[in-house]
Design a protein that fits this description.
Number of helices: 15
Strand order of the largest sheet: 13-12-11-14-15
Radius of gyration: 22 Å
Number of domains: 3
Number of strands: 16
CATH topology of the largest domain: Aconitase, domain 3
Distance between the termini: 54 Å
């Protein structure tokens, strides 16, 4: 891989230990993937932000970088934390665990990162634009940035994202190249009421698409061109969870897919897949480990809820109370929570007996002390990972069904089924 004189000097340690470490990791990555050179980036999103993900080795690595004079050269946002920095005691997080996360937060602050603490930086915090080269980690954010914004990033692993921010460059390969952004498998929706699909439906669709393509680039036609950011967020998260989807093209919706022909780069699809209610009903069924049950926890907000999604919950909860022995937790970013406080949303949810948590995700919280047995969620990503990570049974249901159970409107939650 070609290096400029400046890059060579960074690799040789002439600009300090931190840059030497970071450049060494990036050069090895570039050599591994056959990159021809380094390219400048405009933004970084760090997924190596939770102590629950990188543990002691990652913390010590970040401390070493700080000691070596590490400073981020481009705007750098942080993904989720392992704790809610305000409510961690209420969540029964052990002091020792919380202290480790705080030490990691301190290290990132010294490097100059923005403490956004969210898995959805595209909604609150990043400001990336079409055509920019960026270096993002966190699977749903990668898929959203590439597909909905039209920025360009590969899937970067934990701590490689940190190295990219310190150098301000990454090796040029993969999705930075035009030829690698061509759609490969075409999905055509049939007999669906596309104008009335909710976020859960987009999640089920994304889950099916991701499991089908694995690492290839899907093109989806037949959806409404009025899909919301939250619906696209649900699709991106699900597709990145069931497969390794880093880029998708929704015809008429995403920047590089004004037409099927444009998405396929004037080529023909390797395969065409027709999707109807049966395929998506099957996708929904796979997201539940049981068909019905009485959940003891309702988790909403994976990826983090927007203010609009919080508002939908508030509209339902007004005048209602969360039943005893059930926890209703909404997960969001600290910026969204601040805005939601300004509208009275947080106060309403707390008055109903629910919690609005910021900065974190249940998949990284040490929840053993709560002894949850069955979770209900409207998130395909949460439903995919929770059985193995949190070790609970899961019911994938729509938002209203989750809230109906939480407030006693129904006695049992049924697993989500594709709408008729």
């Amino acid at each position: 891989m070609y290096l400029t004189k400046e890059e060579d000097s960074q690799l040789d340690g002439e600009h300090g230990d931190a840059l030497e470490i970071a450049m060494s990791a990036l050069v090895k990555l570039g050599d591994m993937y056959g990159a021809d050179k380094m390219i400048k980036i405009d933004n970084v999103h760090v997924d190596a932000s939770t102590y629950g993900g990188i543990h002691e080795a990652g913390l010590q690595f970040c401390r070493r970088l700080v000691k070596g004079g590490a400073v981020f050269r481009v705007p750098t946002t942080l993904c989720i934390s392992a704790i809610d920095f305000d409510l961690w005691r209420e969540l029964q997080v052990p002091n020792s665990f919380a202290n480790k996360q705080m030490q990691l937060a301190e290290a990132y602050a010294k490097m100059g990162a923005s403490p956004t603490w969210t898995c959805a930086p595209y909604q609150y915090g990043s400001g990336v634009r079409f055509g920019q080269n960026i270096a993002w980690a966190e699977s749903n954010a990668i898929a959203f940035a590439n597909s909905v914004v039209g920025a360009r990033t590969n899937r970067f692993a934990d701590l490689i994202d940190v190295c990219a921010g310190l150098v301000g460059k990454v090796p040029r390969f993969g999705l930075y190249l035009d030829e690698n952004r061509k759609g490969q498998i075409l999905f055509s929706l049939r007999k669906t009421n596309k104008e009335h699909l909710g976020c859960e439906d987009y999640a089920a669709l994304g889950y099916y698409v991701g499991a089908t393509v694995v690492q290839k680039i899907p093109v989806i036609e037949g959806l409404s061109t009025h899909a919301s950011v939250d619906q696209l967020k649900s699709f991106a998260a699900a597709a990145a969870a069931s497969g390794s989807v880093a880029l998708f093209h929704m015809v008429g919706l995403t920047p590089e897919a004004r037409t099927v022909k444009e998405a396929l780069r004037n080529d023909v699809a390797e395969e065409t897949v027709s999707i109807g209610n049966e395929e998506l009903k099957d996708s929904c069924m796979k997201l539940s480990t049981i068909r019905e049950g009485r959940p003891d926890c309702i988790f909403l907000g994976c990826p983090h809820y927007s203010v609009e999604e919080i508002g939908e919950v508030v509209a339902f909860l007004k005048g209602r109370k969360v039943r005893k022995n059930v926890q209703l937790w909404l997960f969001t970013s600290r910026l969204a929570k601040t805005l939601a406080k300004g509208t009275g949303y947080v106060e309403t949810i707390e008055a109903s007996g629910g919690k609005v948590l910021a900065d974190t995700c249940p998949l990284h919280l040490p929840l053993q002390r709560w002894n949850f047995q069955t979770m209900a969620t409207n998130s395909a990503k949460m439903a995919h990972y929770a059985p193995s990570v949190i070790e609970t049974d899961v019911l994938f249901a729509n938002t209203r069904e989750c809230l109906e159970y939480a407030t006693g409107g129904i006695e049992r939650v049924m697993a989500r089924s594709w709408p008729k």
